[in-house]
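Reopening this one. Same input as before:
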Amino acid sequence: MAQIVKRAYRYRFYPTPEQASQLVRTFGCVRLVYNKALEERTRAHTQESKGVSYAESSAALTGWKRSEEFGFLREVSCVPLQQALRHLQTAFGNFFAKRAKYPVFKSRRRSRSSAEYTRSAFTYRDGQLTLAKMDAPLSVVWSRPLPVGAEPSTVTVSKDAAGRWFVSLLVQEAVAPLPPAQGAVGVDAGISALVTLSTGEKVPNPGFERADRRRLARAQRALARKAKGSANRGKARLVVARVHARIADRRRDHLHKVSTRLVRENQTVVIEDLAVRNMVKNHQLARAISDAGWRELRSMLEYKASWYGRELKVLDRWFPSSKLCGVCGVIRESLPLHVRVWECGCGASHDRDVNAAKNILAAGLAER
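Same output, byte for byte:
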């Protein structure tokens, strides 16, 4: 039976100079409202020991618009500004629920430039998307069609560090589960091989960052030579951002293909709960681990399995998948990373990664 899910469709678009100027102003106003509301909440908490609600922040925003100092806030659509306050409210909710750290201020350079428009602040008709305060629709490259009859509920406009403009349309879509599959697979994440399957197959790790490392280093050296605040430094920073964007795009595309294949071919997928945040503290492996994208791969497997009627099982991170003999069940005391093939006392010879994937699968199926 098909289930209704919220799904975002992301497209590239090319704004006119007037549209770009309007959007840049909107991004700045959104950042200002978020930071000013966060400052007010922090001040009220530290000096007056009281909380500030969303309604109070919204009333304060009205006052800022009427003031002479912040009167320019009236020049942009009010909806993205209200959405910024809602995002701040959500951030505080996550903080008080101990799901996240205390909210931080948005930086002009380090934060993603974006603005969110709800249904009252845009029109979408016949493949034309027009935002509030704009006279002409955006020039969107519709690289894939929206679902038939889908009506976007939210539109998010963003500009990345490489200077590319994107628009993301959130729609409700009916996703039908895939036909049942008989297979089950254990997945062991690695560095030389992105994943090793319990079938013995090893999916190679393309190492996109490693492939572009010389290009990235050359761009970063050129950036370091430019004077701070100069126009040439801004151009050099854009070159570095484009190299990073190329690496991230290629990695994401590869992870989508791997995760989709695992979900399509298997009814049950078993993985380990890797503590990636702790693992990247190893300075010898941090770069390779980040380049592999294990966390992103797990996220893709989670939502795709949920969408398409598959089962994803996650084993405890302390499960000794590599040191456990899959034949006799004996656990080795130690198994250094450089040891890729080892022999058990029972006479069985194991490829470290294949043995781990088989043990992950067996442990996952035993949990039923």
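So the earlier flakiness isn't reproducible anymore. For the record, DSSP finds ten helices and 14 strands in the chain.
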